[in-house]
Every structure is written in structure tokens, then in C-alpha cells.
From TrEMBL:
The keyword Flavoprotein does not apply. It comes from the Bacteria. Pfam families: Porin_4. Coiled coil: none annotated. Keywords: Cell outer membrane, Ion transport, Membrane, Porin, Signal, Transmembrane, Transmembrane beta strand, Transport. Residues 8-346 form the Porin domain. InterPro entries: Gram-neg_bact_OMP, Gram_neg_porin_domain, Porin_dom_sf, Porin_Gram-ve, Porin_Neis. One of its GO terms (biological process) is monoatomic ion transmembrane transport. This is Porin Gram-negative type. CDD domains: gram_neg_porins.
């Protein structure tokens, strides 16, 4: 028995050691859990525990293998989950956050295949508060521009360039996997320039019939922002760091053709006798963060959103003002405590739809009037 164990161990060692010399696999994750208070959900206060706001709670595996000649194989499998009940996030998908394989080169960039982030998330989101340091509650109304990563894109081929004197670019194409080639497909591209403390980024995305099928680019269950005929988003942003302060501005423009609903507040149904042809959002965001010490920062955000509600009975212009404040303290390199609050006021023209009342992304539900705020106290641990 002992001889067999020694032999088995020797064979296993012979197989594993060379592989470890050329490849690596990393297990990692985030647990983000906290207490939320919403002042008005249908006229009532709500107290709740919620998971994954500054960062979505997740676990994942990522790895590389050296193929020689400066080329390496790469992969990532990443699963989102709810800490409170153990359920999978992203509509119950096992690897709903990311799932891809590809090749990468320091000289030529990378090509990856699978379920991935689009170019808005890769490039533009980092210039916004929600896509950088603040998360869910600081998103633009209904996360209309996907800078908080409401949806990922399936069936996707992605190219990401190496950094060339501070300039980097990339793009995605997501197949419909349908006999109708354009039915629920997506494509995006973006770029960024970094020079010391300066970051400038811009992106564009278009999705045809997003969420209309189960096998297309954007899922039709628990992983979309708008169900519509076409989704078109573009924007640009800038961040600049001066000493301990980082200041940012971002502009995004979202055009939704023939919108039917949003996963955040449900159906967008115009009054009887009227048909909604398109919905447009323009988001203007100012954000800032001050790092008082290596362990403690305070951040703030203000966003003005102007909407165009284009119906057969005429054009209306609702608007939204969003304010966010956050403080974060690191107990260690991997564990922090944070406190944040977000407020939204819905104003402008009345559309006689759910868009007329306030809704802070991440709140337990829509307000009964034009105002809503959410306060969150939470703990985050990274492993």
C-alpha cells in the first residue's frame, strides 16, 4: 500500500510541476454585504439587507498558460451571487458575470471569446462614480448607459489592444445566434488615453432588438436594462488627479427605440391613445474623491439627466437630479467598511408613466412621489 502511494505521488508530481511552471490559476472573489434604508417605496419605508452594491458579490477563476513566442492562453469564469440567500445573480446563470477563453500578447493585444463586458464598461465606466469607486446606488437613472454593468454581452468576440504610449482601444461583436443575423446582436468600441494623472475615455455601443431572444447577445431574463427595438449608447469622460483629489466629468447619451420596459421599474406604458416611439437620456455627471489617508476616502457625485419622451401625442422632457455621498475606510488591504447615501429628484414634464416618480437604482422599489433617498452601511471583503 505504501509503495503504491509513493508511486502515485511521484507520478502526480511529475505531471503537475511542469504545468505549474508554465501556467497559473487564481481563485478570487468579493463579498459585499450591508444594510439599506429606503425612505419611500410606494409610500412606505423599507429596511433590508442587500448584497453587492459597491462591488457585486462574486467568486471566480482566472488563469494563463504560456504558449511560447510571447503568446499566452487566458481564461476567466466568474459567478455572481447574493450573500443573503446564496442564490446566483445575473438571472441565475452559473457564470453570469464573465465566462471567456482566448489568447493574449503583450505586443499585439488580446482576443477573447464568450460572455464578456462591452466597451462602455471597459473604457467609459471608469470615468463615472458608479463605474469606478461608488457602485450601484450612484448609477444614472435605470443605469440607462450600462456604466454600472447591468448587462453583459453573450456570444462575444472581443479585441483589446496593448497600451501604446498611453493610448489603448478595443471593441466587441456579439452574435445573435439566430437565423436572423441581426436579431439581438451587439457591437461596441472604445478607447482611452492615460498620461500620468490624466485619463480620457470614450465609447459607443449598439444593440439590435436587445433581450428579444434567449440565445442572443443580451439575455432576456434578469440581465438587461431595456427591452426595445434598438439600444444605442455613446459617451466620453475625463478624470484628473491633483494630489489627493480626483475630479471627473462624464457625458453619456442613450437612445432607446420602441422601448417596452426596463428591468428596473417594469413596463413603460404611455397613456391610452399614445404610442411611445423612442426614449432618450442625456447624463451629465460631476464626481470627485478625496483620499485623506491611504485607508480613508470621501467621494461625491452629482448627475443631471435630461430625457426625451417621444410619443405620437408629442415630445415631453422629464429630468432627474441625482446626488451621492460616500465614505470608505479600509480595515486592512482586503477588508473595508463604507457608508453611502443617494438621493434622486424626478422633475420636468409628466409622461403619465412610471418614469414620473423617483427611483434610485438599487432601491427596493419606486417612490410614490418625485423624491427618494437610500442610505447604505456595509462591509466588503476581497479574497
Amino acid at each position: 500500500m505504501k509503495a503504491r502511494n509513493v508511486l502515485a505521488a511521484s507520478v502526480l508530481s511529475a505531471c503537475v510541476v511542469p504545468a505549474m511552471a508554465q501556467s497559473s490559476v487564481t481563485l478570487y472573489g468579493v463579498i459585499d454585504e450591508g444594510f439599506d434604508f429606503t425612505n419611500n417605496v410606494g409610500g412606505s419605508k423599507v429596511y433590508e439587507l442587500q448584497s453587492g452594491y459597491v462591488q457585486g458579490s462574486r467568486w471566480g477563476l482566472k488563469g494563463t498558460e504560456d504558449l511560447g513566442g510571447g503568446l499566452k492562453a487566458v481564461f476567466r469564469l466568474e459567478s455572481g451571487y447574493d450573500v443573503n440567500n446564496g442564490k446566483l445573480a445575473q438571472g441565475g446563470l452559473m457564470f453570469g458575470r464573465q465566462a471567456y477563453v482566448g489568447v493574449a500578447s503583450d505586443t499585439y493585444g488580446s482576443v477573447t471569446l464568450g460572455r464578456q463586458y462591452d466597451s462602455l464598461v471597459d473604457f467609459l465606466a471608469q470615468t463615472t462614480a458608479n463605474g469606478n469607486w461608488a457602485g450601484y446606488l450612484f448609477s444614472h437613472p435605470y443605469d440607462n448607459d450600462n456604466t454600472d454593468n447591468t448587462f453583459r454581452v453573450n456570444n462575444t468576440v472581443k479585441y483589446t489592444s496593448p497600451s501604446l504610449a498611453g493610448f489603448q482601444f478595443g471593441g466587441t461583436y456579439s452574435f445573435s445566434n439566430d437565423t436572423n443575423f441581426a436579431n439581438n446582436r451587439q457591437y461596441s468600441f472604445g478607447a482611452q488615453y492615460t498620461n500620468g494623472d490624466l485619463l480620457i475615455a470614450a465609447s459607443y455601443l449598439q444593440a439590435n432588438n436587445p433581450s428579444s431572444t434567449a440565445t442572443g447577445a443580451i439575455n432576456n431574463g434578469g440581465d438587461e436594462n431595456f427591452l426595445s427595438e434598438r439600444l444605442r449608447i455613446f459617451g466620453a469622460g475625463i478624470n484628473y488627479t491633483i494630489g489627493s483629489a480626483t475630479l471627473g466629468f462624464a457625458y453619456t447619451n442613450t437612445d432607446v427605440a420602441q422601448p417596452l420596459s426596463t428591468s428596473y421599474v417594469g413596463a413603460i406604458t404611455p397613456p391610452a391613445g399614445s404610442t411611445l416611439s423612442s426614449l432618450r437620456f442625456q447624463n451629465f455627471e460631476l464626481n470627485g474623491k478625496y483620499q485623506f489617508t491611504p485607508s480613508f476616502f470621501v467621494g461625491a457625485m452629482y448627475t443631471y439627466t435630461r430625457a426625451d419622451f417621444n410619443a405620437t401625442t408629442g415630445k415631453l422632457h422629464p429630468n432627474y437630479q441625482s446626488i451621492g455621498l460616500m465614505a470608505d475606510y479600509n480595515l486592512s488591504k482586503r477588508t473595508d467598511l463604507y457608508l453611502q447615501g443617494a438621493y434622486q429628484h424626478a422633475g420636468g414634464d409628466k409622461t403619465q408613466t412610471v418614469l414620473d416618480v423617483a427611483y434610485v437604482p438599487g432601491a427596493a422599489g419606486v417612490s410614490s412621489n418625485s423624491n427618494q433617498f437610500v442610505i447604505r452601511a456595509a462591509m466588503r471583503h476581497k479574497f
